[in-house]
Backbone:
């Protein structure tokens, strides 16, 4: 027993350990992942050395594959009832058109509801706000008692690309400022920025940008899920052991991510810019920010950078907290609703509870 307790977790203890053999993994998640062919670790098809043109080609195909996978995952999910959906197009900070998707509960409330700006994941290079997982997620957030605005921001690759930093961030900030300008029409009591993975990055960065733009008053809070914010995927930062411990679990590995994020900041001109990689923020960047909450997944290689950011916020005097969802891989609480409905629902409740608290 003492030997088991002292063994380092995941691939820190055994570099060849597979997710299916990790005793921490939720067996319900493993069963669903196996049925989708997502359990086995495969060599990364791209990395930081892959050329820009080859990355563009790969990500175009990868996005098609992810879209098909998302359709398969959501196929058996029950449709959310009691929610209205509408689309609106605004003009962004760069003069471009931006699609916003607004979800709100059909049931009338007795007063304003919390407003959530939702920013989807995909490493700032893939996916769409119209994807089935994100449509379902926003609907369920709205049904819990919120007005949810999804933003179709420009990606650094795929069908909404190629637009590297700061295009996507500017679009998210545009949506944030629009929500603030139309609070009365939206009938919202405040604005919480929320998103997962690349959307977690953009959620945190949008708040930092709002401070720089002298519009911080429009942000009531930030709830980021498994944010990718360190850009330490080529030379793994030893202060973030989850980069090694969970490398490759659930198809999310450092080698692959180093290639994806090369698209976001070609040439690495912004490698220390906190608007690109919020973990590089200084105390002066963080002071005075509104309440934050960071949710991470135990078996995610991004786990420790999310926790590190929460601690940086706390050290800077920000009201900030964090939680770790045990047994699941990157964004597993959002993606594996069918297998783990309790985990999915807990994250919905947690975001809604945070929004009620700050708004």
Residues:
């Amino acid at each position: 027993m003492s030997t088991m307790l002292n063994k380092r977790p995941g691939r820190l203890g055994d570099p060849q350990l597979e997710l299916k053999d990790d005793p921490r993994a939720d067996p319900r998640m493993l069963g669903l992942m196996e049925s989708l062919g997502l359990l086995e670790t495969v060599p990364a098809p791209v990395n930081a050395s892959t050329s820009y043109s080859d990355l563009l080609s790969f990500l175009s195909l990868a996005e098609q594959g992810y879209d098909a996978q998302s359709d398969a995952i959501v196929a058996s999910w029950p449709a959310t009832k009691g929610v209205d959906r509408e689309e609106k197009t605004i003009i962004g900070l760069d003069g471009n058109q931006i699609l916003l998707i607004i979800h709100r509960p059909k049931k009338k409330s007795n007063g304003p509801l919390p407003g959530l700006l939702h920013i989807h994941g995909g490493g700032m290079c893939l996916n769409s706000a119209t994807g089935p997982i994100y449509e379902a997620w926003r609907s369920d957030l709205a049904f819990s008692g919120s007005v949810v605005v999804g933003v179709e921001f420009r990606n650094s690759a795929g069908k909404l690309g190629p637009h590297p930093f700061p295009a996507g961030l500017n679009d998210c900030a545009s949506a944030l400022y629009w929500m603030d300008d139309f609070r009365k029409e939206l009938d919202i009591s405040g604005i919480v920025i929320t998103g997962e993975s690349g959307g977690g990055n953009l959620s945190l960065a949008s708040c930092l940008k709002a401070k720089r733009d002298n519009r911080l008053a429009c942000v009531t809070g930030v709830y980021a899920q498994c944010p990718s914010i360190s850009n330490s995927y080529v030379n793994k930062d030893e202060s973030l052991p989850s980069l090694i411990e969970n490398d490759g679990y659930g198809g999310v590995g450092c080698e692959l991510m180093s290639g994806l994020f090369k698209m976001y900041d070609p040439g690495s001109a912004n490698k220390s810019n906190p608007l690109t990689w919020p973990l590089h923020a200084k105390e002066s960047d963080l002071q005075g920010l509104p309440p934050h909450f960071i949710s991470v997944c135990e078996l995610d290689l991004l786990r420790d950078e999310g926790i590190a950011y929460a601690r940086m916020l706390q050290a800077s005097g920000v009201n900030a907290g964090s939680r770790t969802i045990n047994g699941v891989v990157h964004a597993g609480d959002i993606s594996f609703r069918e297998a783990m409905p309790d985990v999915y629902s807990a994250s919905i409740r947690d975001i809604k509870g945070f929004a009620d608290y700050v708004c």
